[in-house]
Amino acid sequence: MAGDAPYTNMDPEESAGKRWCKRILKWSVVIVVVLYLVVLLIQFCCYQWATIHCNAGQLKDYSFPGGGAKNLVPKDTLLAEQEPKWWGSSFVSYPADKDGQTQGASTGVYFRTWGPLFWTVTYQDIVSKETFVIRDKMIHIGGSHQIKRCDGIGPIYTVQEGSHVVMNWIRSLFGMYNSRVYNIYEDNTMVAVSSKLGGQQSHKQMVFRRPDDENPFASCFLKSRHFHGQFDQWFVEVKEDSPLPNFVPNAVTVLMAFGTAAQKSNKEKNDEAAKTDDAGFLEVKKTDDKPAMTAEQAWTAEQEAIAPAAEEEEQQQQPEVALAEASQPAKEEAAATETETAADAKAEDLKAPAVESESEATEATEATEAEAPKEA
Q1: In the prediction, which pLDDT does 288 show?
Q2: Which of 125, 15, 105, 121 is nearest to 63 (CA)?
Q3: Helix, strand or coil for residue 225?
Q4: Taking Cα atoms as reference points, which of 126, 131, 130 lies closest to residue 104?
């Protein structure tokens, strides 16, 4: 009987549209996962390339010139921006005095290397030894940066927004003087607080203080935006009672220095692009107002453009011709007068010998007549 037949066809068949949606979703997930893995691979390669010399083996029994084994960099430094390259940018570190004046040759350089997920900043001293590295921490609320020595000695320092992330956003939104606050951790212990001052203007600065003290033990500020004409220059000052080694305030400063320089470069590029776009827009509008011309019309327009120039040239030549014709009789009269003058001068030259001969003959006759009575 029909009622005893198994219920094999009770489930409705899946529609073609639903099957295609599942396929698209599946392949979308596969593509996203593959792209994410590719990005991670590229980031890993970029980080390894940036830190290729950052290892404990190369720093064994090393003297760390420029700052010593503890501080790695001088107490007071000047950070000077260099010409950016296609792969990254750099800041050179100079020792300085309390007045922000250079005290000698550079002690090292900060290199920032690109990555698809984060930048990597390394410090190289005067013999190209990488002594510490700065990198972003990817999985964290707000901004977070890790600072660690390449020899593996000492604690790892972390600079992060943490609970300040919401207030930092509000401060930045309204351009407040104290625009951002970061906590600084030594391993897992909070040892300092950094505050970015100056709002969104060019007078950027930062102070470092203990969590329980209002007086800063270190500070930095943007000293110049025109170092060597177009580069930024920062001054970092660290006091003797600093709970942090010198390289930590310098590392935090250079993070802000790189970001500030990038903002300036982007602004200059946008301004230049805006000027180019405005010029191109006006030029296009001017060209579009003219209808297209045929070859005959173009030839006629060219002849019409040439005709006024030819008439103007002819008009300019006519006064010159008239002036030449008017001056011709005067030139001929002057030539005739010059010819007559030359002829008179020549006649005088011919008469002069004859007069001299006649004078000599007269003198001879007088002498003869004078001698005649004496003989008589």
Answers
A1: 46
A2: 125
A3: strand
A4: 126
